[in-house]
Design goal:
Blueprint: H1 2-18, H2 20-24, E1 26-34, E2 44-47, E3 50-51, E4 58-66, E5 70-82, E6 85-96, E7 102-106, H3 114-117, E8 121-124, H4 131-140, E9 148-152, H5 158-167, E10 171-176, H6 179-191, E11 198-202, E12 218-221, H7 224-238, E13 244-248, E14 259-264, E15 270-277
Parallel strand pairs: 1-7, 9-10, 9-12, 10-11, 12-13
Antiparallel strand pairs: 1-4, 2-3, 2-5, 5-6, 6-8, 13-15, 14-15
The protein binds S-adenosylmethionine.
């Protein structure tokens, strides 16, 4: 019985190898991916979840596609531009076997491909701002009892607690991506008995809708230049004119700061702080 089975397997294998249709219906296809090279770490590239070998500005993936059949490739580039930021850029392509056997995909996000970067996921790691520097930020923002303070990427909520305790802000709202860090924020708010005044929301600041920040009058940030560049249009187009944004160290893309100062911290370090005041929005004139 065993021998009969073995013979049958051999016959099928020989038949498959000999079949001209099998070989002819597959087309060798080469996908070359141009990779963003901003990293302190080598960019990792994945296709349909599988990491590609290689390093440098190009990665090549070879595959055999069935003639005329469409296949979807999900490409991911994982970039670490510095030791606190991780960017995931995604692109989906559809290829039909036999239509194009050499394909080039640009994931660099430069020039004409800038559009692609607008969907990047960006996460920065948790580094708290010292209390005295939060106070300097609050002074620069001229926080008063009328202010509702937001911190996008709120960490342990220090940028919400200090403005309420020291400057009398009426409310604080923190948005935090990492559930573990969010627990720190909630504990810190409880410890300071500010549950009635501070709200912590879990979420990605890049997914914020205008209504999510509409009551903010002050936004305090410590989020890196990449996140700053992405979040800046939402803030500029949503916050009420006259609202203030103060960022610890980092900038907001091409939105020029109204004021930048350097302050000395109690730890002896120098801290750069930047202030933006949301301008009046121009009202589009009707063409009629
Ligand atoms: C540099 S820490 C600043 C924490 C706090 N604002 C401070 O200055 O002490 C950045 C925080 O943003 C959070 N974060 C990173 N990426 C985020 C994202 N896309 N959306 C919301 N929070 C994010 C991190 O988990 C971290 O707690």
């Amino acid at each position: 019985m065993k021998t009969a089975f073995r013979i049958a397997v051999c016959v099928l294998a020989v038949a498959a190898l000999a079949s001209p249709s099998c070989a002819q219906d597959k087309v060798q296809t080469e996908i070359t991916i141009l990779v963003p090279e901003r990293g302190q770490e080598e960019t990792i590239v994945k296709i349909n979840g599988k990491q590609l070998d290689g390093e440098g500005p190009k990665r090549v993936y070879k595959t055999a596609l069935e003639k005329g059949k469409e296949v979807v490739f999900k490409i991911e580039a994982l970039v670490e531009p510095n030791n606190y930021t991780k960017i995931t850029r995604r692109k989906e392509i559809k290829l039909k076997g036999g239509e194009n056997d050499k394909v080039k995909i640009d994931m660099t996000g430069e020039s004409a491909f800038e559009e692609l970067t607008k969907k990047d996921d960006i996460v920065v790691r948790y580094v708290p701002t010292p209390d005295d520097i939060v106070d300097e930020m609050s002074k620069l923002a001229k926080i008063t009892k009328d202010d509702v303070v937001y911190d996008l990427g709120c960490g342990n909520a220090v940028m919400l607690i200090r403005p309420i305790q020291k400057f009398g802000a009426k409310k604080g709202v923190g948005v935090e991506y990492d559930p573990e860090i969010m627990k720190l924020a909630i504990e810190n708010v409880k410890k300071n008995k500010l549950e009635g005044k501070v709200e912590i929301r879990q979420g990605d600041m890049l997914k914020l809708q205008p209504k999510d920040v509409e009551d903010a009058t002050v936004v305090l940030l410590y989020i890196g230049d990449d996140l700053g560049k992405r979040v800046s249009p939402v803030l500029k187009n949503t916050l009420k004119p006259g609202s203030r944004i103060v960022s610890h160290r980092f900038l907001l893309g091409d939105w020029k700061a109204d004021k930048s100062i350097t302050v000395k911290g109690e730890d002896g370090g120098e801290y750069e702080l930047h202030l933006w005041i949301v301008p009046e929005r121009k009202i589009e004139k009707s063409s009629k």
